[in-house]
Design a protein that fits this description.
Elements (H helix, E strand, L loop, with lengths): L3 H5 L18 E4 L5 H7 L7 E4 L5 E3 L4 E11 L9 E2 L2 E2 L1 E12 L1 H4 L5 E11 L11 E2 L2 H12 L5 H17 L5 E2 L31 E3 L4 E5 L30 E9 L6 E5 L31
Helix pairs in contact: 4-5
Amino acid sequence: MATIKQRYEPNIKNTKYLKYPIKSDYRITEGFLYSKQELSVRGHYFHKGIDYACKWGTPVYASASGYLVASYHRYPTLNEDKTLMLYKGLPQGNGLGYFIQIFHPEKVCGIKGGRITQYGHLSKFAPGIYARTFKPIIIDYEKEILRKYKKSHKKVSGEKLQKKIAGTLALAKQYPWITKLYGYSFNENLPKKESYLYNEEELKYLKGSKYVKWVEQGELIGYTGSSSIIWGDLTYKENCERPSIKEFETWDEVHLHFEEAGRNIETRAKELQRDPYGIYLSKEHYQTPTVGNTLFTEDYQGRIW
């Protein structure tokens, strides 16, 4: 039987072009596949990124040179039937939170069409970096639950269905943030589209504005936090150009979510994610200092305790 790596590693030239986004004092707590504990929270296997757990406010650096944009991305975690997925009785936020994306053109990454890296759950951006934000999409839970029910063709009593709707609406009243989706403005009109969806040519539209910036490899871009990882009450301000979040209680540890991927030219969907360590497994497999075939230009860092 084929391994996860054999089945899912993109057939792309392995060019070393990255540096580590965090320099020291971290540990890898999630690999390309979720751990059993995280699977119980998320409900699916694929993480397609690396989580570096560290202290709140740890500096984050550009892994490679490129065009930087910043945004805010957050959604409530839902079950298949569009009701809220609760963790220990409380609703959960998910997404990249305040995040930075850097587009690395071919001259940097060595791959036609370029690649992107993403840096999620930040608490602050470095000076001179601004998130380009849009109004949230409002979720109509009654409409979504009924639509999912009709589509599934499952037999559910009217009483049970109304109970699901009533329970979800009661939670929405108690936790208003769960009715909002941030980071989902997919309009084809450039001024109305999320900047993280722009291709290299479209980034020229933002040239000269405060919303796009060329950064060099190793340049400071932000600081770690837990933005979007909400559990119960929302305790910080969402959708700011210049966030500054104080540490808050959540269900996960403070960490940087780091991804390396491509973006489909036509659909703009993120795709062909690669594991920068070349392992494609869960966190237990990242705790050795003898991993090879990475995308990193430096020798493998052993400080991942």
